[in-house]
UniProtKB/TrEMBL annotation:
InterPro entries: YgfB-like (IPR011978), YgfB-like_sf (IPR036255). GO terms for cellular component: cytosol. Transmembrane segments: none annotated. Belongs to the UPF0149 family. Pfam families: UPF0149. The lineage of its organism: Bacteria, Pseudomonadati, Pseudomonadota, Gammaproteobacteria, Alteromonadales. This is YecA family protein.
C-alpha cells in the first residue's frame, strides 16, 4: 500500500488530490499559506510577467508567504515545480490551465473561501510586476477590476444549485482572465516564463 502523502507526479493526481497534498505539505513545513494562496500568488506573478528563473522570484515568494525566511530545499523544489507546471499550463494551446482549489466533494463555503483566497493572492502576485494598469488593454483592465470585486465576495452562501453554478462560473471566469493576463503580459514579459525545471 502506498503512502497517500507521497509526492507522486502532479499529472497523475486530480487537482483536488493535488490541492489536499500541497496544503498538507505547506502546513507540514510551517507555511501559513494554503495551496490555493501559493498557486494564486505564483499565477499572478507569472501571468503579470515576472520571470521564474534564478533565485529572485523565490526570495520574493518567501517574503510574501514565509515572512522572508528562506525556504527549506524540499519547499524550494515544490514551488519550483509548481511554477514550471503553471508556465506549461498557461502556455497550453488547449487551455489546460486550472485553478488549484478543493475538490467538488468539499462544502461550497470552503471552496468559495479557497477561491477568494486564490484571487486575493493572484492580485498580490500580479501587483508585484504590474503597478500601472493604464498600459493594459481594456479587456484586461476590466478583468482585473472584476477580480478585485470577486476578492471582496461575501462567502456566506446557501449551499444550493444556484450558488454551485455561480461558483463554477466565477472559477471559469478567473481561469480565462488569468490566461488572458498571461497572453498579454506574461508571454511577452522580458524575463519570459523560463524556469530551472524541465517538464518531461
Amino acid at each position: 500500500m502506498t503512502d497517500s502523502n507521497s509526492d507522486q507526479p502532479a499529472e497523475l493526481e486530480s487537482s483536488s488530490q493535488a490541492y489536499d497534498r500541497l496544503t498538507e505539505f505547506f502546513e507540514r513545513h510551517g507555511l501559513l499559506s494554503s495551496a490555493a494562496e501559493v498557486h494564486g500568488l505564483l499565477t499572478g506573478m507569472i501571468a503579470g510577467g515576472a520571470g521564474v528563473e534564478g533565485d529572485e522570484w523565490l526570495l520574493l515568494l518567501s517574503d510574501l508567504i514565509n515572512e522572508g525566511n528562506s525556504f527549506p530545499p524540499d519547499v524550494r523544489e515544490q514551488v519550483s515545480l509548481m511554477a514550471a507546471e503553471l508556465c506549461a499550463s498557461l502556455r497550453d494551446p488547449d487551455l489546460g490551465f486550472q485553478l488549484l482549489l478543493p475538490g467538488d466533494h468539499e462544502p461550497l463555503h470552503e471552496r468559495l473561501q479557497a477561491l477568494t483566497a486564490w484571487v486575493q493572492s493572484f492580485l498580490v502576485g500580479f501587483g508585484v510586476n504590474q503597478t500601472n494598469l493604464a498600459g493594459l488593454s481594456e479587456d484586461l483592465r476590466e478583468a482585473i477590476d472584476d477580480m478585485v470585486e470577486i476578492a471582496k465576495l461575501d462567502i456566506a452562501v446557501d449551499d444550493d444549485e444556484e450558488a454551485e453554478r455561480a461558483y463554477f462560473e466565477i472559477m471559469e471566469y478567473l481561469r480565462i482572465s488569468a490566461m488572458l493576463c498571461f497572453n498579454e503580459l506574461g508571454q511577452n514579459g522580458g524575463a519570459g516564463c523560463k524556469t530551472n525545471k524541465t517538464l518531461h
